[in-house]
Amino acid sequence: MRTEEKVFFCIEKYQMIPKNSHVIVGLSGGADSVCLLKLLKEYKKQQEFQLYAVHVNHHIRGEEAVRDEEFSKAVCKKLEVPFTVFHYDVPQIAKEEKLSLEEAGRNVRREAFEKVMKNIKVSGRKMIALAHHENDNAETVLHNLMRGSGAAGLGGIRPVSGEKDSYIRPLLFVKRAEIEKYLKGQGISWVTDSTNEETEYTRNKIRHQIIPVMEEINPQAVSCIGRAAENMWKIEEYLQEQTDILYRKYVKKTGDTFCIAKECFSEKEIMQSYLIMRVLEQASKGKKNITATHIEAVRRLFKGRTGASVSLAWGLTANQVYGDVHIQSRKEEENGIYTLEWETFPYEKQQIPEKTYTKWFDYDKIRNSLSVRHRLQGDYLVVNQEGGRKKLKDYLIDCKIPRQERDKLTLLTDGSHILWVVGYRISEHYKVTSQTKQILKVQVKGVEENE
Amino acid sequence: MRTEEKVFFCIEKYQMIPKNSHVIVGLSGGADSVCLLKLLKEYKKQQEFQLYAVHVNHHIRGEEAVRDEEFSKAVCKKLEVPFTVFHYDVPQIAKEEKLSLEEAGRNVRREAFEKVMKNIKVSGRKMIALAHHENDNAETVLHNLMRGSGAAGLGGIRPVSGEKDSYIRPLLFVKRAEIEKYLKGQGISWVTDSTNEETEYTRNKIRHQIIPVMEEINPQAVSCIGRAAENMWKIEEYLQEQTDILYRKYVKKTGDTFCIAKECFSEKEIMQSYLIMRVLEQASKGKKNITATHIEAVRRLFKGRTGASVSLAWGLTANQVYGDVHIQSRKEEENGIYTLEWETFPYEKQQIPEKTYTKWFDYDKIRNSLSVRHRLQGDYLVVNQEGGRKKLKDYLIDCKIPRQERDKLTLLTDGSHILWVVGYRISEHYKVTSQTKQILKVQVKGVEENE
Question: Are B416 and B378 a contacting pair, CB within 8 Å?
Fold first, then answer.
């Protein structure tokens, strides 16, 4: 099939562009988005819809950014597509909001898309067309496979996604090489987006070391992976629908407690897992990082005796109650943050207790107001008596705390200065010394000390 | 977990070795099978079962084969496991049966296992323990992924398989490196099986070029792929069970006709595909190579009008009948082989018709008896007037006929010499010339010529 036919087939198969809708292309000026714009312009010959292009100037590389903006504008002029440009000082925003350039860039692009959508006042569905292609998809699938993902991850990039299905990806079944070939054939040029060449370590290895070997084995490997992925996300959709049915059949919610009826144990193991996953998602209010270990722990409760219980992440506990399993949040640990109780009293050279969940601090050293929260960019501790600072992130890495756990830690903070990483160390700065006058005693509520 | 614990956990999780059963290990003398034998011997300390070892001497490499046999015997003596050896002249068998050494080897091993099983006259289940490990599994999954497999293929190697679940793979969650480490730790040696080092091109590339890069990205990549695979085959099992339910609900068989009720069109697309796949498997009597294209062709019939029909492989046709889809075999094309009709008559310099499905041959050139069959190893054609031979396989590759199609072609043959690849060319050797006396006219029954 020619590239055009392939893309139009994909648009129609997934009903991406209904009649009288509005399609906004995010145009970087790179091959992928230029190709997408050109093909959508062609598609207008056979379907009535409005096409728009949005370029975001990130102000990351001065001259290059100007070149890309000018180029994108020229492309739109030539193709007669309404063009809007947004300017964001991404390096500044990243600095202010303590984000990586990549994250900040993603945020401003999303903002720009939303502004454009809002400005379209006429009726009709509004979609954002993204230029992900078959190679992006194969890379995503492989990345997920080597992390041990389930069907959801092996499904790769979806052709249509987002709330109200507002993200569409018409190039998803076109290879990277085909995109460039198409543009050359059409005599259309593009700019080389240098941000694209700086992609991260993992994706680079997959792109340059794994995919080429796979293509030596099977020249169609990338398309085959795409086909396998399409099959997988269809399976995942079906399993989610089956889970809806099981949820209505076996799960009752009373207050904050989710009760899973013991009869669910007669379902296939895989569907028990999907059901438990769903309940944990609901109970943890959409928290991520629910792992196979959590699910297996809950599943094992069905075989346990009444009263058996496990403590899960996000402040959830699961209990076996006469065969059923009840999952509820421990009130005091809303958001996975421990509740801390404190008191102050004068320091009279008492023995300082060495406990994990009770700590004493020098009250007078506190500069701002105290708060209890998860970690933020810029957090630090003082790690020696000389006042040496260490970034919280580096400390957590030193402690070998897995990335997914780091975001769940409860911190007692004084601005960006961390008094206490609950469960771990306190900052040297606030330690009680012979000069201390007033003690701040902080204790985790409801946690028993093992002494 | 230690290797032992991991293996025992796997045995118990999948209930591989029930009490009082008989377990036969295929012992090559290589690390994997020696490790398997040792660990099963250890497992006997906690479960009552009988353990046997079978070594097959393939007579492929004279001295090496003797060494491997002696080594395997010695291992069994040391571990006190009953040892049986079988001798097969595999090169000879391969030659006689026109098989590759690999295929012939697989066949004789299966035969040896079956003999041993038959000789166990006491009661209790009988199983064959195979030494596939986590790396074998990851390689299989990747191979299948880059061929575009569905959930069945992405499920990789099953821990328990075969009719009556008689193949078990206790090492499936142990890495190759761990096996060697375990044996070294136990002071047990092994022989290096040189057949193992000659594995095929694809597997070698996956093993030596892809997996190592994946392990640079994630040192646990192999185990993660294994975990993803386990999840996938559990999903596949569930989907097959759901297909059973749909089959009972929507499919009726009358004579040779399978009728799929139109109501099945209300099911999720993926389940329609699973159901159609099942019907095609039944209707084609378990033929392989049912592809997404065949399934999609049948699925589209539901949207077609009455009377719409498609011709599938294996002599099957699908028809739309008032919304339902009927699948039946065309009698004349049993096994996917066309029926050929022939006649002979004297050559009187008539015009030779140029048709695709009717061919004239020089009858007197036929050496053996004619037969109509699928392709076999050793088939060839003559491709020029100088009598130049070409392997059939190479000709089919030149014609870009996909591998899965090649096995379905109907061939008119004279021993290994192919007169006609039906639908494609005839051998130059049998072409009618000015010297021809007698014509053999062959015509495909029931196929209309487009002239």
Answer: yes
Average pLDDT, chain A: 88
The two three-digit tokens of residue B443, written as one number: 């015509």
- The helix or strand, by DSSP H or E, that contains position B257, with its residue range, turns out to be strand B257-260
Tokens read off for B424: 């494609």
Residue of A nearest to B202 (CA): A217
Taking Cα atoms as reference points, which of B378, B262, B284, B360 lies closest to residue B328?
A: B284
Contact A139, A206 (CB under 8 A): yes
Q: Quote the tokens at residue B250.
A: 């929507």
Give the span between the Cα atoms of B433 and B425, in whole angstroms.
Answer: 16
Residue A345 in 3-state DSSP?
strand
Chain mean pLDDT for chain B: 88
Task: Please tell me the distance from the alpha carbon of residue A431 to that of residue A252, in angstroms, as a whole number.
Answer: 48
Query: Distance of alpha carbon A331 from its chain centroid, rounded?
Result: 26
B267 three-class SS: coil
Q: Find out whether B276 and B250 touch, Cβ atoms under 8 Å.
A: no
What is the spatial order of strands in the sheet that B316-321 belongs to? B251-254, B257-260, B324-329, B316-321, B309-311
Q: Which residue matches tokens 């949820």?
A: A247
CA atoms within 13 A on the CB side of A268: 17
B141–A contact, CB cutoff 8 A: yes
Q: A206 in contact with B at a CB cutoff of 8 Å? A: yes
Here the tokens at position B365 are 């050139």
pLDDT at B40 over 80: yes
Given the structure tokens 């769903």, which residue do they identify? Answer: A278
- Domains in chain A, ordered, with CATH? 3-233 (3.40.50.620), 255-329 (3.30.465), 338-444 (3.50.40.10)
| Alpha-carbon distance values, A378 to A89, A381, A400 (Å) | 21, 10, 19
pLDDT in tens, B142-161: 999 998 899 999 999 999 99
Q: What is the pLDDT of residue B325?
A: 92
pLDDT at residue B451 tops 50:
no
Tokens 């329609």: give the residue: B272
Q: Is B165 exposed, middle or buried (0-12, 13-18, 19+ CB in 10 A)?
A: middle
Cα A312 versus chain centre, distance: 21
Q: Which residues contact A78 (CB under 8 A, 6 or more apart)?
A: none
Query: Nearest CA to CA, how far is A159 from chain B (Å)?
Result: 16
Out of B146, B223, B237, closest to residue A225 by CB: B146
Separation in Å, CA B106 to CA A99, B49, B83, B90: 58, 27, 20, 10
What is the tens place of the pLDDT at every residue in B44-77? 999 999 999 999 999 887 788 899 999 999 999 9
* pLDDT tens-digit map of A422-439: 988 999 999 998 889 888
What letter would DSSP give residue A182?
A: H
Give the list of residues 6+ apart from residue A169 with CB closer than 8 angstroms, or none: A129, A130, A131, A132, A157, A158, A159, A160, A161
Alpha-carbon gap, residue B383 to B394, rounded angstroms:
11
With a pLDDT cut of 90, the percent of chain B lying above it is 53
**Which of B137, B144, B207, B217 has the most A C-beta neighbours within 10 Å, making it the best mutation to test the interface with A?**
B217
Q: How do B167-168 and B160-161 pair as beta strands?
A: antiparallel
A104: Cβ–Cβ under 8 A, 6 or more apart, which residues?
A90, A93, A94, A97
What distance in Å separates the CA atoms of residue A440 and residue B341, rounded to the nearest whole number?
Answer: 101
Is the pLDDT score of B42 beyond 50?
Answer: yes
**Is pLDDT at B330 greater than 70 in this prediction?**
no
CB atoms within 10 A of CB B50: 16
Tell me which residue in A150, A218, A223 faces B231 most closely, judged by beta carbons.
Answer: A150
Q: Which has the higher per-residue pLDDT, A451 or B201?
A: B201
Does the distance separating the beta carbons of A141 and B231 come in below 8 Å? no
Q: Do A238 and B271 make contact, defined as CB atoms within 8 angstroms?
A: yes
A218 touching chain B per CB within 8 A: yes
Residue type, A443: Q
